[in-house]
Design goal:
Blueprint: E1 3-4, E2 8-10, H1 13-26, E3 30-31, E4 47-53, E5 61-65, E6 70-74, H2 79-86, E7 91-92, H3 103-109, H4 116-119, H5 122-125, E8 126-132, E9 138-142, H6 154-158, E10 167-174, E11 176-177, E12 181-189, H7 199-204, E13 211-217, E14 220-229, H8 231-245, E15 251-258, H9 261-271, H10 274-277, E16 280-285, H11 291-301, E17 308-312, E18 317-322, H12 326-343, E19 346-351, E20 362-363, H13 369-379
Parallel strand pairs: 1-4, 2-4, 3-4
Antiparallel strand pairs: 5-6, 6-10, 7-11, 8-9, 8-10, 12-14, 12-15, 13-14, 13-17, 16-18, 16-19, 17-18, 19-20
Length: 400
């Protein structure tokens, strides 16, 4: 049974560093698995201390460099508060994660969505980070300009490290001007594999979208594309898309129209809301050219099970799941593993129902995990930051 002590809440870097040093001295791990990613990875050690960072004054905004198109914020700021703070300035950060996620959780798990096509992921948006390592040292990397990295880029290494390499408390991000026009287009496909062979052509064409996702809604495969920019440019891209789709059998535009930025972010959030409530949820990352095929296999092979499948085809990221029991989850797990082996992909469990907890959280092993373990040993030698969540500690210091 887990025996977590009361959570430590910190508001300043000094408080956070003191908490890390105290945990290091007592050999009591600090654990923060986030809000939407509590089921990702191995469970925490039996004895641990939950960590919660709180946003400071001004809602977590430290400084907005509006002319440099950058903003410096506390990692405890939520997506909703970040968007609200920037909206009056006519700028935004293109993070389309759930509104209640903190920036720290987004960095730890490399969270991204449909907007990554046009704006990049959190790795591309980050200009600088400040974090506390496992020794309690305050580390600053990067800055507020684009060309500021020399040597090992720790900013990028911390992204997706599940909080094992350091506790981020502050970040500097690029901002973008809110687009004058957004046009969203829903394209219906009779077969999701049709997009695999034409994905590169689409991205090289004038019809290349800013946002793109695919899902099997109400039994139909729908691709949602978003065009962000000036009105004339968005209209030209829409016309180009219409011409492009004429070359893809079984593809047709089911609807299109203008959308505000807030409206589009809300719609994106609504379309992925099922992932937060699904008892069973697995993420697969495969080569983009195999996205449609894997989506089709997941939907068609899991017969007799009500399953959702949604993906970001440009990046080969696929989510599958729903209200599945343990037996159905094991069946989904076997299929996911087979597809990852076939397509040289990676599988990560987000949620597993009771009776399916034995399923390995990550598979297959990745080549860069050994490098991460060496970095962990260097910057967190006592293994007190989320130990064992992904990387295996070198000793049995933290029994499970």
């Amino acid at each position: 049974m887990l025996t977590a002590t009361p959570a430590i809440q910190t508001r300043t870097p000094d408080e956070l560093a003191a908490a890390v040093r105290q945990s290091r001295e007592t050999a009591t791990p600090l654990v923060d698995y986030g809000v939407a990613h509590r089921g990702v990875g191995n469970p925490p050690p039996e004895s641990h201390t939950p960590l919660k960072q709180c946003a400071s004054a001004r809602g977590g905004v430290i400084e907005h460099y509006d002319r440099d198109m950058a903003i410096r914020v506390a990692s405890a700021i939520t997506v909703a508060d970040l968007h609200a703070a920037l909206r009056p300035t006519g700028q935004f950060v293109p993070i389309d994660a759930d509104p209640d996620l903190t920036l720290g959780e987004i960095i730890n798990h490399n969270v991204y969505g449909a907007l990554r096509v046009g704006y990049g992921s959190i790795r591309d948006l980050l200009l600088g980070l400040r974090f506390i390592d496992g020794n309690g040292d305050d580390i600053h990397v990067g800055g507020r300009t684009v060309k500021n990295v020399a040597g090992f880029d720790m900013t990028r290494l911390l992204v997706g490290a599940l909080g094992e390499l350091g506790v981020v408390y502050e970040a500097t991000l690029r901002t973008y001007a809110i687009p004058e026009q957004i046009i969203v287009v829903d394209v219906q496909l009779d077969d999701p594999t049709r997009i695999d062979n034409r994905l590169t052509d689409l991205l090289l064409a004038s019809a290349a979208p800013t946002a793109m996702s695919i899902a099997n809604l109400t039994g139909k495969w729908m691709v949602r594309m978003g065009y962000f920019g000036k009105p004339a440019g968005c209209l030209a891209q829409l016309r180009s898309l219409e011409t492009f789709l004429d070359t893809i059998p079984g593809a047709r535009i089911a609807g299109h129209g203008p959308m505000t930025l807030d409206g589009e972010l809300d719609e994106i959030h609504a379309r992925r809301s099922w992932r937060r409530t699904a008892s069973s949820l697995v993420k697969l990352v495969v080569p983009p050219a195999a996205t449609g095929k894997v989506c089709w296999e997941l939907a068609e092979t899991m017969t007799g099970v009500s399953i959702h499948v949604a993906a970001y085809p440009v990046h080969g990221c696929i989510f599958a799941g729903g209200d599945l029991n343990a037996h159905e989850t094991e069946r989904l797990g076997r299929l996911a593993d087979e597809l990852c082996v076939l397509h040289h992909g990676l599988r990560v469990w987000y949620n597993r129902p009771a009776g399916a907890e034995h399923l390995a959280p990550f598979a297959p092993p990745q080549d860069d995990w050994s490098l991460m373990a060496k970095l962990k040993q260097t910057i967190d030698p006592r293994w007190i930051l989320n130990p064992g969540r992904l990387l295996t500690p070198p000793t049995e210091a933290y029994p499970r």
